[in-house]
Amino acid sequence: MTQSQPPDTDDALFLIEDQPDEHHQPKDSWRILIVDDEPDVHEATVLALRDLTIDAHSLDFLHAYSASQAYDLLADNPDVAAILLDVVMESEDAGLALIRRIREDLDRRAVRIILRTGQPGYAPEIETIRAYDINDYKTKSEMTRVRLFTTLTVAIRSYRQLCQLEMSRRGLELIISASTGLAKRRALHHFSEGVVTHLCALLDIAPEGLVCVASAPTGEKSPWLIAAAGRYRHLIQSPLHELPDAEIRNALEQCLTAKSHLFDPMTCLYFDVQGTQGVAAYLDVAYPLDRVNRNLLEIFCANVTVGFENVLLHEQLLDSAYYDPFLHLPNRARLIHLIDERKDGEQDDTLALIDLDDFAEINAALDHHFGDQVLRAVAYRLGETFQPPTLIARVTADAFCLLGPSAAIDRYTIEQIFATPFDLQDRSIRISATASLIRVGPGPTRGADLLKDASIALKQAKRLHRGRAIAFTEDLGLAARERIRLLTDLRSAFHAERLHLAFQPLVDLATGSVVGAEALLRWTTEEGDVIPPDRFIPVAEHSGLMIALGEWVLRTACDQLKRIIELGHTGFRMAVNVSQAQFREPDFISILERVLHEHEIDPKRIELELTESIAIGQIASTAAKIAEIRRMGVSVALDDFGTGYSSLSVLKQLGVDRIKIDRAFVQELGHSSDNGIADLVVALGRQMDLGTIAEGVETEEQRRYLMERGCKDGQGYLFGRPMSSDAFEAWMADRL
């Protein structure tokens, strides 16, 4: 080791008067901070230590003339090795206070501090050394050049040792962290990429020019690049011989051949991974690695080698589980997984199931070896025809699957693949195949179910269109048939007057008095089965039947309202749900006026309930129609507020009279610590001068909570379930 260069005189430090060289800024040096309020001390210190080296490093000086200035310099210069610090500066204990700030506020534990004072009485030596983390404590009068140099040398060597210990600690932490993080990476490429990243962090170098190379088992292919950073990143998955830098290429090859680390002149790490000829990583390190760094790298490599072996084993298991061993194509399990991944995306994909006709007969007549050649030939032609991103899978012994963009997968292209004979064993053979095509779209259908639907469709195709590719949407067909059946039954029920209205009371939450009712459409089949509204109403809306149904509901509700009023319930209001399709009808307003006039109903006694979806894309026209309805005297409520698309801006533009709190938010009351949504809707109604109605009130606690928050009306099982017309009239009669 190069020894420190000692001074050649023992003159008292403060008798030296030569001026230091202000412009000398050594490149590789120890940074020393001089903190003293006397400029002469700075000049004398620099001059005494000028041109001296400590362990082959020059000295570079920073200057501060107060404790506060020193603190700022230290905050901006984290590489200061030692501080020559005066005790008394702007205050009697300025130096001592600075020591605490350095250790506690800046958390600079490694920097060494040499305390100097011209007034030792202010800080007794023994007590000061005991109380403060300092290297030495000297009076200025005793600091000769030799003593200063010796003290500074000891301090800097201590600093270096502390830095090495810290580096070792940090390196071990990084290795532990790397082991944990890398364990989560299963793919070889991702794992190797993580190795590169963690090596950069361990050596504190930029991720530039790092390369991981894997050598496959003997007899397979030559080493290839599996992870890189910086200028070599574009070479990932390329053979090693394509690496443009010959020196790095040779170093990696030497590392793999020698099966050991190389540290001179380049740094290459070797990972003895079982099942391969090894893995090597080149590090673009611009400085020689010391013993500490080498030890850390060896520990890192030992840990990572096990990780490489686990990743390779994991890939082998995945290969066995998800790939066909004969053609090395994705198998049924892998295909199902990929369908599940893709079906919820935005791309328009198609799944094609292709079955080779009479393949069992080919195997029986021409032996299994010929059958294997048939499979290879079909797989090859499929691969030539359908390029990525289309996926080709083998799902059964004689069936293939295509999964890819609908624009690429079509009936004609599939049929053309089998239109040309296959040349096998010097013979030309025609192979027939039947295929079914199904669109892959978002929805709850799982990949396994979609493949099952494709199989059902394929069976139908084999029975009806053998040798051809037919586009089937079996799931959509089943749904369409179910909708048609439901619509047919609904039309019959409508004309046979098997539809009816149920009425659920609206109650003043404070007084308990009935203020109105909501008319609810119900359908009970001839067999007595109740069809939920959320099943038949969407069908009615899409078919156009909802227009006629909606008018019938309005008329029936007005009939009931008139009877209720005649029974003496003045001030009663009837809430009627209006569907989007019904509301969009150009003559909706005129129908409403005509029905109210025919039944002699005061428009103030009718409230229309609209859903938030009515406003989508047509806010202006919707707001205008609502305004016209309100001018008639009919009130408008926004149903299920907060569950759809409304914003505060939309609510203001629509200009409704009331908002209804959805039952989901009401049900949370008393069961969750967060009642915020219900509170928010009530507060919003109060702020905008809108009435509020709570749906689904089932407990006294919910009623009391909503009432106390300012919600006026409510409906739910606490007050009454939906009732038939006769039952509701009897129920109301009891409340006169």
UniProtKB/TrEMBL annotation:
Pfam families: DUF3369 (PF11849), EAL (PF00563), GGDEF (PF00990). The modification 4-aspartylphosphate is found at residue 86. Residues 31-155 form the Response regulatory domain. One of its GO terms (molecular function) is cyclic-guanylate-specific phosphodiesterase activity. Residues 347-474 form the GGDEF domain. Keywords: Phosphoprotein. Residues 483-736 form the EAL domain. GO terms for biological process: phosphorelay signal transduction system. The keyword Membrane does not apply. PANTHER family: CYCLIC DI-GMP PHOSPHODIESTERASE PDEF, SIGNALING PROTEIN YKOW. This is Response regulator receiver modulated diguanylate cyclase/phosphodiesterase. It comes from Thiorhodococcus drewsii AZ1.
